[in-house]
């Protein structure tokens, strides 16, 4: 499936592009992508084989695509792909980059140098990390993700309420405890070996995409590997573009994504951010005759204020907005007037927020 962004410019949606990510990104139209999730080579610099106490060999990341001659070479590579990524992002787009202590500090500095604006670093704490077999260092139990907007002041997507709901009503923190990818989710090759050494868990991408994209957004992953980003994007009704240099990984990813079923529309609806809801001034309730000038509003203790024609309230010599009058009565620095004030109808007291919701439902 493809869509046109500008005449003669085609975005290859839900496709895995074969080749080098910088070259491929440079072939795509500028400012066309909502979110980039990047899991670049970590430059692990492993020296020799690593063995477990029973002498079995640890299946570490020693692949050729993770090898760089020097930090300088890695930094140049990072600068190149981040420049290509930044060109692709829409002005309000954002990027996530995941890495370990081997590379994430270098990536972080390069992101800032390139003009990105770091919003958070999220620590993915692995609930089942690999032990430190030699006992010479701490168990390396986390990876770091940097979340950055294209530039300072950009209106990036953040589905605060949806993330809070995902966390049972508690504000989502920047430390995420999730298991590494294993069991049935871990893709295997024909020999029963791991198909890819660094396959990321779908749960991680689920949280990233729910939190920082909306259905229909275009998500690009320039280091696609087994296509975890594409698989979760498809489930969640987002469009994806993957880039991967290695044919074997592209094949694994293609087969994996073909089996994924998109969740239905209803399931994809998430709790809306209050910020995203259209603003309704209290005065509109008065203008539309839902509340009449002179009508009394009451708080839960029955203390009253009178509605005025300009959408303010008056009580005991104090006038102001619904919020200011509520705060004045409570002696509090602030007050949410929408939930504080009630109107009376048929012997019942009803929060004025209900009237605001009625107006909002007409707006969507
Ligand atoms: C850390 S892995 C990503 C794993 C992926 N997140 C997953 O869940 O399967 C990095 C991937 O980037 C690919 N790669 C490395 N350098 C590349 C480049 N310059 N262009 C395109 N792909 C590249 C590697 O082949 C490897 O599959």
Automatic annotation (TrEMBL):
PROSITE patterns assigned: N6_MTASE
GO cellular component, one term: cytoplasm
Annotated transmembrane regions: none
Domain of life: Bacteria
Domain RAMA: 265-362
Cited PANTHER family: RNA METHYLASE-RELATED, TRNA (GUANINE(10)-N2)-METHYLTRANSFERASE HOMOLOG
GO annotation terms (biological process): DNA replication; methylation
Enzyme class: transferase
Family designation: Belongs to the N(4)/N(6)-methyltransferase family.
Catalytic activity as recorded in UniProt: a 2'-deoxyadenosine in DNA + S-adenosyl-L-methionine = an N(6)-methyl-2'-deoxyadenosine in DNA + S-adenosyl-L-homocysteine + H(+)
Protein name: Methyltransferase
Keywords in alphabetical order: DNA replication, DNA-binding, Methyltransferase, S-adenosyl-L-methionine, Transferase
Pfam family, one: N6_N4_Mtase
């Amino acid at each position: 499936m493809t869509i046109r962004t500008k005449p003669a410019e085609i975005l290859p949606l839900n496709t895995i592009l074969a080749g080098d990510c910088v070259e491929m990104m440079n072939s795509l139209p500028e400012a066309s992508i909502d979110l980039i999730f990047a899991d670049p080579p970590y430059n692990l610099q492993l020296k020799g084989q690593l063995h477990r106490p029973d002498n079995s060999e640890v299946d570490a990341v020693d692949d050729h695509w993770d090898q760089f001659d020097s930090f300088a070479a890695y930094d140049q590579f990072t600068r190149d792909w981040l420049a290509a990524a930044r060109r692709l992002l829409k002005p309000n787009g954002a990027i996530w980059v995941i890495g370990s202590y081997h590379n994430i500090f270098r990536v972080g500095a390069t992101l800032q140098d390139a003009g990105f604006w770091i919003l958070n670093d999220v620590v993915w704490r692995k609930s089942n990390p690999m032990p430190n077999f030699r006992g010479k260092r701490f168990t390396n139990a986390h990876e770091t993700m940097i979340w950055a907007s294209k530039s300072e002041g950009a209106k990036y997507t953040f589905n605060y309420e949806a993330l809070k709901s995902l966390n049972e009503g508690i504000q989502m923190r920047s430390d995420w405890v999730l298991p590494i990818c294993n069991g049935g989710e871990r893709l295997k090759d024909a020999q029963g070996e791991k198909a890819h050494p660094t396959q990321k868990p779908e749960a991680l991408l689920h949280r990233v995409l729910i939190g920082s994209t909306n259905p229909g957004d275009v998500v690009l992953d320039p280091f696609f590997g087994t296509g975890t980003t594409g698989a979760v994007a498809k489930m969640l009704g987002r469009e994806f573009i993957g880039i991967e240099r290695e044919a074997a990984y592209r094949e694994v990813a293609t087969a994996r994504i073909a089996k994924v079923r998109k969740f239905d529309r209803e399931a994809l609806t998430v709790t809306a951010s209050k910020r995203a809801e259209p603003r309704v001034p209290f005065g509109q309730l008065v203008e539309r005759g839902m509340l009449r000038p002179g009508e009394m509003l009451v708080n839960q203790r029955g203390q009253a204020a009178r509605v005025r024609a300009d959408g303010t309230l008056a009580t005991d010599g104090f006038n102001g907005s619904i919020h200011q009058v509520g705060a004045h009565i409570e002696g509090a620095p602030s007050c949410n007037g929408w939930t504080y004030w009630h109107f009376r109808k048929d012997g019942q007291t009803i929060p004025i927020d209900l009237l605001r919701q009625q107006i909002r439902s007409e707006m969507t």
